[in-house]
Amino acid sequence: ADQAVVAQLDSRSKRSNSRTQQQQRRQRQHQWGQLQQQQPDALSASQASPPAAADITEQYVLPSQAYLSGSALYWQQFKGLFVKRMLCARRDRLAVMTQLLVPLLLVVLAMVVSTLQTSHKEQPALHMQRSTCLLGKPALLAAAPSVRQQVEFRGFMDAYPRSELADTQYTQLYHGSSGPALNLTLEGQLLSQWSSGQPHYDAIYLNRMPLLEQLLTSLSEGPVITLLANQSAVSGLPAALSQATTALLRVLVAAGGGKSTPAALPVMPVTG
Q1: Calpha distance 154→156 (Å, rounded)
Q2: What pLDDT score was predicted for residue 260?
Q3: Other C-beta atoms within 10 Å of 251: how many?
């Protein structure tokens, strides 16, 4: 029963389609008849002799004078691209505003930021002195056994203010496993005091100190000093070096007949 119904529906749809096609064919024939009545000469000419391909080519090929070149061609292309860009901008105004205003605003913001200035207060000059750079702690002194027996060693000690130099009585530096134990050296003394909470920030070891006569006659055999400085103190190394060289200068002045008291030669005026 279902198959019979489906077949009946198919036959009906075919008949309706054929009727629709016949109606469309009649309408086209009617329109064609009307065209023949209105323009019989034009239709007969077009059906009688269709135009040749060469005639069509000649009809649409322009002479060479009609083609642009040089600046006129560039101007035509520029005008076409400008009109195209204007039409695209009119369709998407948000994109145009983003492309034009955002870079301009960024440039203005950069210029404003560049004009901002942070005020820096002028700090006073930092004098390379023990009280300012080494927290007023005295330097630790050690010397080789041969140096300790010389008069020049006492002169070097006198070149320092008495409150700024402390003799540790040590005679050696630490040289690793090949040398003495760490607690018997100047470095060990510095570490032990650092751990105890009473640190010293610099130390001096006199490796060699020539006689006063040799200091005046020859500079090839000058004094050899090992300077130890803790870099946790601000500008500690320059201050310690300045005071050590000042003490050596006082020793040289004393060797030349001057006085080696601390007031004989002022501290070198080094600032930073």
Answers
A1: 5
A2: 40
A3: 21
